[in-house]
Structure formats: C-alpha cells, structure tokens
Amino acid sequence: MKKRAVILLSGGLDSTTCLALANKESFELFALTINYGQRHDFELKASKIIANLYNVKKHSILNINLAKFGGSALTDDIEVPKNRSENEMSNIPVTYVPARNTVFLSLALAWAESLKAYNIFIGVNSLDYSGYPDCRPEFIKSFEKTANLATKIGVEGEKMSIHTPLINLTKGEIIKLGISLGVNYGLTSTCYDPKENGDPCGFCDACILRVKGFHSISEKDPLRYNN
Amino acid sequence: MKKRAVILLSGGLDSTTCLALANKESFELFALTINYGQRHDFELKASKIIANLYNVKKHSILNINLAKFGGSALTDDIEVPKNRSENEMSNIPVTYVPARNTVFLSLALAWAESLKAYNIFIGVNSLDYSGYPDCRPEFIKSFEKTANLATKIGVEGEKMSIHTPLINLTKGEIIKLGISLGVNYGLTSTCYDPKENGDPCGFCDACILRVKGFHSISEKDPLRYNN
Predict the structure, then answer these.
(1) How far apart are CA B38 and CA A160, in angstroms?
(2) Cβ separation of A102 and B147 shorter than 8 Å?
(3) For chains A and B, what is the number of CB pairs under 8 angstroms?
(4) Between chains, do A149 and B155 touch, taking CB under 8 Å as contact?
(5) For a surface tag, which of A187, B11, B28, B52 has the fewest beta carbons within 10 Å of its beta carbon?
(6) Do residues B15 and B8 touch, judged by C-beta distance below 8 A?
(7) How many CB atoms within 10 Å of residue A205?
C-alpha cells in the first residue's frame, strides 16, 4: 500500500513544487488548502486546478476566518507594500499573518492523524522567505516534536514527519527543481494582490521574489506581468 | 495598563474555572471559543453566557469544520461511549478529536499575537483527562517552545506563556477552586452528548468525571441529571 501524505497546497509556486515532489516520491496524495480569508483568493482556484492535475486522492478546502483576528495586510485593509528594497524585505512585513504556519500545520496534523498519514509536506523556505519567523528550520523541528507529543500516533509509537524539501533552496533552485519535475508554473498563483483576472501585480514581495527566481536561472515565467 | 490574556473557553467546567482564575489575576480577558463541528454545540451557548458574565473585552467564536477530517465521536456519527469503567477510560477513546488542542492553541496564538497578549490560558488537565495525549504537560511545554519560535513576538524578544493552572489538579480540586472563585457551575456544559434542552446525559466519560468530581468533595452539581 502506498504511504499517505498530507500536502499543504496554497496554489502557489512553492507548494505546487512540493506536491510534484511528493507525487514523484510515490505518496498517496491528500492536498489541504486553507481558505483563511486572504485577499488573494485567486490562489484557491489555482489550488483546485493543480490538485486535479496531480490526481490527488482527496483535496480538502477548509474555511477558517483568520481575518477575524486581524493584524495582517493579507487579510485586512492594510495596504500590501510594493517595490520594497532587499533591505526592507529583511524585516518582518505587514503581510505576515500571525502564527499562520502553526495554524496550517496543526490542521494538516489533524487530518493526517485521521488518515493515518505519517507525512506532512509544507513548502516553507528559509532563504527567500520574506522574514517570516515560522519559515525557519528551528520552528519546523520544534513543531514536529510537538506534533508527536500531541497525537495518538506519537503515543502509539509511530512518527509524524514534517517534510520541508524546499527549506534550504533559493527561489531559483526551487523553480529549477519544479521544471525538472514537469511543473506548469503557468497554473500557479503567487501574487499577494492580484488583478481581478488573476494576473500578478508584479510589485509585491511575492512577485518580486518570483520574478527574481526565474531571472536567476534564465527561465521565463509563464505568467503575464503586463503592468 | 492591564496585561492581556487569551482564554480558550469551551463553556465547560474546566475552561470556565480557567477564565475565573485569569479574571482574578487581573488580566484583560479575551475569550476564544472554537465551533469545530462538535455534536455538543450546547457548549457554544454556555460559552456566550459565561463570557458575558465575566465581562470579557472580546469574545470570538471561530468556526472551523474539523468534522471534515473525521475520526472522532465528538464530530462524526460514531456513538459516544457510555458507562465506561475506569480501566476502559485509561485508553484513548473514540471521543478523541485528532490534534484538537494543537489546533486550538495555534488559533489562540494567532489571536494573541495580533492582540499583543503574551498569555494564553487553557484548561487542560493531566489527571482526569480521559487519556488524551494533548493534555499532558510535556505537550504543553513543547507547544510553548514552538509558539515562541513561530511568532514575531518570540523574534522580538517577548515571551508567549501558555498557562495551564488546572493541569495537576483532580476534578474535585478544580471544582473546589472554582467554588472559591465564585464560579456558577450551573451555567457550564460538560456532557459530550447532551439532551436537546442541554441537560447532561450522565453516562459519557465527561459526565462521569464531573459527577465523581463533585461527589469527591461532597458538593452538589447544580446541573440536572434526571435520567
């Protein structure tokens, strides 16, 4: 029987690469997308198309209104910053959603435990990571330890593993990996503040990192930046 | 300025005692109730009445459909076990909701970080705890460490504390503490499978622990067990 894995799938570049990797490693795929009230909900449409393409066993979209807690430009009426310099981008930006990856991993853990899936994939990245504290390896390691103390799985002697295959890669290396796996990046959605038709703004942190990533390996981003 | 605290409030006996304690310790109170698709949603009504009574600064009720993940008698069509012996109750029961406290604490953490509240209260109990792994002190300690790695708060040198004032108390001791704080246990809802009017069944694990608790300190439970 195939081993099962829960993959956190936002519909973005990183999580789609993660899904392609888990697929290549022959896991039975369960994709989890969290609709947390983000303003860039074009991601949700992308996640459905991608989950379908990879023929996942099940794609769960879970609604949770983190906007209720406030405090982030991704869920509130705070403006998404544009054209930040590299120096500015090393500070934790207003697009930080409080405790987002802790919440996402907890939900993945809940589903994984129900499924008897002992593997969770998350596409966090500690290099080109916009300064979010919950993308760092020490956070992931600590969460994995907590997860094993939290669950029946741990008590019964199995081990829950949190896979972060992209954590030490540059954006360019991630894209290169994805291309080698046949990922169609034209289907992914990265922008924090996309236009109505889903086209990226080209100027938010996420767009800047993505554009630089493609540029660094001399590849062409299939998305349209027509500003 | 008063220090802020987020209190996970289910509307049950333990969390209400926690709220009363945080109130006595002069925290500014933010109560968080999670509507996770539990079949005993009478709890939600209890939580509103109690939050109101303690004049909390804000009461957030967050909807999240953990039933989607399955695997528990509290959210699924699995029957809630009744009249289990003490021996049976030492095993992890079907009322276990996968990773529930990890999910709840993550959500409390997200809100706490937005509020700049550095204190989270959760009424877990490792003695009369029905065998849930996520009620143990080692889990809480590990989560606290993870929380401080996960957040801006941690990076900026503040510390998020997870308070578990009930963790080493027997049910009887918790009730005694609550009575000394003036808690009206007639407003709380404990049963996993209450009747339509909210009256407890009297025979599920939660009812049995509660009844025993009152009995052990020779106090009368104000709830009606009229089976």
Answers:
(1) 25
(2) yes
(3) 140
(4) no
(5) B52
(6) yes
(7) 21
Reported as a single tens digit per residue, the pLDDT across A87-114 is: 666 555 566 678 899 999 999 999 999 8
Kindly provide the ipTM of the predicted complex, given to two decimals: 0.88
Residue B74 has pLDDT above 90, yes or no: no
Answer yes or no: are the C-beta atoms of A29 and A115 closer than 8 Å. no
Nearest to B122 by CA among B4, B9, B3: B9
| pLDDT computed for residue B67 by the predictor | 79
Sheet holding A161-163, edge to edge: A58-63, A28-35, A4-8, A119-121, A161-163
Indicate the length of chain B as a whole number.
227
pLDDT for B116-154, tens place per residue? 999 999 999 887 655 678 889 999 999 999 999 998 776
Q: Are the C-beta atoms of residues B167 and B174 closer than 8 Å to each other?
A: no
Chain B residues 65-104 with a CB less than 8 Å from chain A: 65-66, 68-71, 92, 96-103
**Residue among B65, B110, B142 minimizing CB distance to A146:** B142
What are chain B's domains?
Answer: 4-216 (3.40.50.620)
Query: pTM of the prediction?
Result: 0.89
| Count of other CB atoms within 10 angstroms of residue B116 | 12
DSSP codes joined into one string, A28-58: EEEEEEEE---S-THHHHHHHHHHHHTT-SE
Q: 3-state class of A62 per DSSP?
A: strand
- Specify burial of residue B111 (Cβ count, 10 A radius: 0-12, 13-18, 19+): buried
From the list A66, A69, A110, the residue facing B66 with the nearest CB is: A110
- H or E stretch at A100: helix A100-115
What is the least distance, in Å, from the CA of B109 to any CA of chain A? 6
Check B133 against A111: CB less than 8 A apart: no
